Amino acid sequence: MRYLTVLLTFIFLGTGSPLFAQPSPSLVISGNPEAPPVAWNKQGKLQGIGPKLATDILSQLNIPYSIHPATDWLLVQQQLAAGEVDLIVSAYKNKKREQHMVFSVPYLKSPVVTVVKKGDRFLCNCWDDMIGKKGVAGQGETFGDEFDAFIKDKLDVTYTTYQRAFEMLEEDTADYLIIDLYPAIIYSKLLMVEDKIEFMEKPITVQQLHMALSKKSPYLDQLPAINNQLKQLKEAGKIKKLAIEQYNSWHKTFKERQRFYAKADKKAAEVQATFNSEARDRGLDNLARFIEREGPYMGGGVDY
Question: What is the pTM of this model?
């Protein structure tokens, strides 16, 4: 009996550790719920290129994970800063975010494009060509430290909702819309204006999508391993392929919803059905145009 008492005292007190080791907490994943095909909330679940990449990589590395349901992009970033979320599946790198995030290597380029009303193209080879015209952009959007500063100093740009931005093009209260390629493709479909707009030839700039780990995450030391996996997938061309697959997945859902709402809005459905009857999907064409090629893009005051 005395031997048993001594043994138990050693186990509970002498080692300073519990009798049984506690399992490691799972890495918490989240992301922007409204950025298809990179990330979007589908029936309470995070879908898209970013979530698919993150879960595949973490499974390969035998890192336990859970996916945090996202409803608001700003809230997700605040949760990451507080350490409540470990990993955001996609984000642009900038100085403000680097205060509380550590970024992975880039895994997918995200061109920032200029959208105009159909027939309203203008010569736009560099940023200076936008001076003197009225621009519009999505509320809360950022396009990289350099171009954000150029907008502030040189351009006349109003920030509003995507819906209102496309309306301003239609009613000629804006000459151009500054927007990331992915939401440009997605929202032009959602708002049924694909046949009323066109994309300018050169992107304004090209940003890069990264995964981002919270500086408070216990999994911060796994970043080199995550980077290694991302590099391998990128070099093998699997991420570009995934971008097309996820776009097609989103588009399938969109068309199903479109048929559902057609019962309540037959006229709008007929207009869109006529446009959808084209041989190829225009969104898919624009993805290929800007993502698959390595073309020139604008610079500040320089005609490339």
Answer: 0.71
